[in-house]
Design goal:
The protein has 830 residues and is an alpha+beta fold. The chain contains 26 helices and 16 strands. 34% of the residues are buried.
Length: 830
């Protein structure tokens, strides 16, 4: 029954959480499907139009490598519109300058046959598309030349060039077409992929060659329109790149337009240089560039026609919806829209991760509550049920065969029940009750008092054993419930950290940059990771000058003045490339520093001591000084004490509560070995911001604090971990002061004076007599005095850990620079 109830609880917790998540996301999912369907239809129509133009496009008026490469990529990426794309390419080839419809249809058929053959052997994927296109084009063109008996070295070279162009275009289209097929999950394109996209668009424009509307040539208008778009989005580099690529491809399609490459490149560069203005500024730059080159290169008629083409392109550019430009900007690396899309994507991932962590936290919380529920009945009803079961068992074994059964249990039920209850109470108080101690009135009523006593003592022994194991089960359930609750709390805190909103810290970064540059420092980049109080983290890459220490002497004091909090250098590293730059990380300086020293010896001068120690910064502003003494001596005791400290340190670093961490450690040590192994734990958690110290003493001897001429002892009465299933954890909190010396030791040192001496007073006197304030010298001096007290004999494992707390003194004072104001920190959003 317990397994079924536990399983029902777990499944109920999961189903409840996931059901709420699914219900909340159902409406959004339906809406997204409609939006995606609409966008998919729009892009499908665009792909069909592109197929028509690519079917018409040609190079040098005799090569047509575009259509088959495009169809091959569509075959692997959007097979649902493959037949429409094929029809559009067929229609475009019918309207080309030199009709190549027969070649295109034959190449498509050969491509499909080879593809089906590969699919039969399950070796077909997108990576084979370039090879299939090359083979299909080469075989069809070669067969055509052989049929007409016109094969020559020139024709062989030309068909090889067309096949190679098809292969290269297939590779390019593989990179560019997924932008239009909704297969990308995020808006991030590499520069190479942007170039492939531009080549695709320029190839599509070649399908408009020889289309003329009055004095305006369509391909020139579209090419300049494309330059305006990319110049506005990406600036001068993208504008010039688009001009070069577009002009090159258009000149291959029409040899009379070779000058278009220089005209478009120069126009794109001028338009991109004016991108910081607005659309009109970009349009003015393109008009200026095209007019200048047209004036020098062409005739007066060509200049007028170029002006009309530029005006037509500018008109289309000004009529372009802002949403289209923003969509294009999301793909271009380095733009604000691209960075924002990346941040939005990261925010969605962060929110989803935080939601999953919260769901797991809620599952563990529900499991904790289920383990804490004892039963549906209260304790009184359970007690009455257990007593009734006890009475029935005694009555069945003794009264069932008695001739006075009906008289006792039917006629005098209440009297018999009272006597049986009294007998059970007597056995409860005196488990070794003898027959002579049976009350006389009970002997008058019952003929089988001796037998009833024996059976009742036997049943009470079973009853007591059942109570013991039930208590063990209940204690284990409470322990598991507490641990699940602790894990739930840790995961909830993690979810809160994940959900913290990323903040725009550009203003603060610029404020720091301006202040440092006014001091003459060469700053490459500044990244503010966190400005939370007590958790500042700033990363600066600056020009490194050998022989100077600008970070500690200038930058850190200036940051302290700007932020209003002590800032120190956390780490600094030179760049391996030798460019003269180094990365420096600045963080919040702790108000106190801890210096430690350790001294110890193993029993009898052995190699392994059963004592273990640890001094580590936990990462949450606390410094842990810990000492553990394993049972006995030698390697096994050392392993036990090291395990205890390691587990406790990891639990505390994860953010678990101190008391719960101790209880979890106790349960782990009890379960990991069937032998009677235990270890003491003596830990001091020092808050490095205010010096408040929490002592956790589990079975350990007193610790001491030396404050000037006064010695203070800290003690607690707890058993070591790993003995009892449940232990009481007493936490002692004491605020330390600057200059205090904390002394922690194992029983090998504390028990040195013997049993006839007041150990605490003796140890206080020893600590008081040591004059040094250096922790390592203090530990060595105390251990040496213990050796001398025992005349050099080491009777037990001895370890002493000394920690000194000091107020942190900054190496360099803050300074105020004229014109620098105190920084305003953004509000923390949780």
């Amino acid at each position: 029954m317990q397994r079924r109830s536990l399983g029902a609880t777990i499944s109920g917790g999961w189903s409840g959480i996931w059901q709420r998540a699914k219900t909340g996301a159902h409406s959004a999912a339906v809406e997204n499907r409609f939006v995606q369907a609409f966008v998919a239809k729009k892009w499908s129509f665009l792909l069909i139009v592109m197929a028509f133009l690519l079917g018409r496009a040609m190079i040098l008026e005799q090569l047509s490598p575009f259509a088959l490469a495009f169809i091959a990529v569509i075959y692997f990426t959007r097979r649902d519109i493959l037949h429409w794309v094929g029809i559009a390419a067929f229609a475009g080839s019918l309207l080309s300058i030199n009709s190549n419809t027969g070649y295109l249809v034959t190449e498509i058929i050969v491509f499909l046959l080879i593809q089906k053959a590969f699919e039969k052997f399950e070796r077909s994927d997108l990576t084979l598309a370039p090879l299939l296109v090359f083979s299909s084009t080469f075989l069809v063109q070669l067969f055509a030349e052989l049929v007409v008996s016109n094969l020559s070295w020139y024709s062989l070279m030309m068909l090889s060039v067309e096949a190679l162009l098809s292969l290269v275009l297939t590779l390019i289209f593989i990179q560019a077409i997924p932008v239009f097929t909704l297969t990308r999950k995020n808006y991030h394109l590499k520069h190479e992929e942007i170039i492939c996209l531009i080549i695709l668009l320029a190839s599509v424009m070649t399908g408009t060659v020889s289309w003329v509307m009055g004095p305006v040539t369509v391909e020139h208008v579209l090419s300049r329109y494309l330059i305006l778009l990319f110049a506005l989005v990406g600036g001068a580099p993208f504008g010039a790149s688009v001009g070069v690529i577009t002009g090159l491809i258009l000149s291959l399609a029409n040899s009379n337009a070779i000058y278009q490459m220089s005209l478009l490149a120069f126009s794109g560069m001028l338009a991109g240089l004016l991108k910081e203005g607005n659309r009109l500024a970009v349009a003015f730059g393109m008009l200026l560039g095209s007019s200048i080159l047209s004036f020098y290169i062409g005739s007066s008629a060509d200049m007028i026609n170029s002006a009309w083409e530029s005006l037509a392109a500018v008109t289309l550019f000004l009529l372009t919806p802002r949403s289209l430009i923003l969509t294009l900007a999301k793909y271009v690396p380095g733009t604000q829209e691209n960075l924002k899309s990346q941040q939005d994507y990261a925010k969605r991932v962060r929110d989803v991760t935080a939601s999953r962590v919260e769901q797991f936290s809620e599952v563990f919380r529900q499991l904790s509550r289920s383990f804490k529920q004892l039963t549906t009945d209260d304790a009184v009803s359970r007690k009455e049920e257990e007593v009734g079961h006890f009475m029935n068992a005694v009555a069945q074994k003794t009264c069932e065969s008695c001739w006075k059964k009906s008289q006792c249990w039917d006629q005098k039920f209440y009297q018999t029940y009272t006597f049986m209850t009294d007998m059970m109470t007597n056995i409860e108080t005196k488990e070794n009750m003898t027959k002579k101690q049976i009350p006389a009135e009970w002997k008058k009523v019952c003929n089988r008092t001796d037998q009833v006593l024996d059976v009742m003592k036997q049943q009470y022994s079973l009853y007591k054993n059942d109570l013991h194991w039930k208590k063990q089960i209940m204690d284990s359930r409470h322990l598991v419930a507490d641990q699940l609750s602790g894990v739930s709390q840790v995961m909830e805190d993690l979810a809160k950290e994940i959900k913290r909103e990323g903040q725009e810290l550009f203003l603060q970064e610029e404020q720091i940059r301006n202040a440092l540059e006014e001091l003459g420092l060469s700053i490459h980049t500044i990244d503010i990771i966190s400005l939370d109080e007590g958790n500042i983290e700033i990363e600066i890459i600056h020009q490194y000058t050998k022989g100077f220490d600008e970070c500690r002497k200038i930058i850190a004091p200036l940051l302290s003045e700007i932020i209003g909090e002590n800032v120190a250098v956390m780490r600094e590293e030179m760049h391996e490339r030798g460019e003269g730059y180094s990365t420096v990380v600045f963080g919040s300086a702790k108000e106190f520093v801890v210096e430690t020293g350790v001294a110890g010896a193993a029993k009898g001068g052995d190699l392994f001591s059963g004592d273990s120690f640890s001094t580590v910064e936990l990462g949450n502003g606390k410094y842990a000084v810990a000492l553990s003494d394993g049972m006995g001596n030698g390697e096994r005791a050392r392993a036990e004490s090291q395990t205890a400290l390691s587990i406790l340190q990891q639990l505390l670093q994860s953010g678990m509560d101190e008391k719960l961490a101790i209880k979890s450690l106790n349960s782990v040590l009890m379960l990991r070995s069937s032998d009677e192994m235990y270890a003491t734990v003596d830990m001091a958690l020092i808050d490095m911001y205010n010096a408040n110290t929490t002592f956790m003493k589990i079975g350990s001897i007193p610790s001491f604090i030396k404050r000037g001429n006064e010695v203070i002892s800290i003690s607690a009465n707890n058993l070591p971990v790993g003995i009892l299933s449940e232990i009481d954890v007493d936490l002692v909190s004491i605020p330390l002061q600057s200059g205090d010396i904390l002394v922690m030791m194992t029983d090998g040192i504390y028990d040195a004076p013997g049993h006839a001496v007041n150990k605490e007073m003796w140890m206080k006197r020893m600590i008081h007599e040591i004059d040094t304030t250096l922790p390592q010298e203090f530990a060595d001096c105390l251990l040496e005095r213990i050796f001398r007290h025992h005349h050099g004999e080491i009777q037990d494992d001895m370890t002493v850990v000394v920690a000194r707390v000091e107020k942190r003194q900054p190496e360099w004072a803050t300074f105020r620079w004229p014109g620098i104001t105190r920084m305003e920190r953004p509000k923390t959003v949780s």
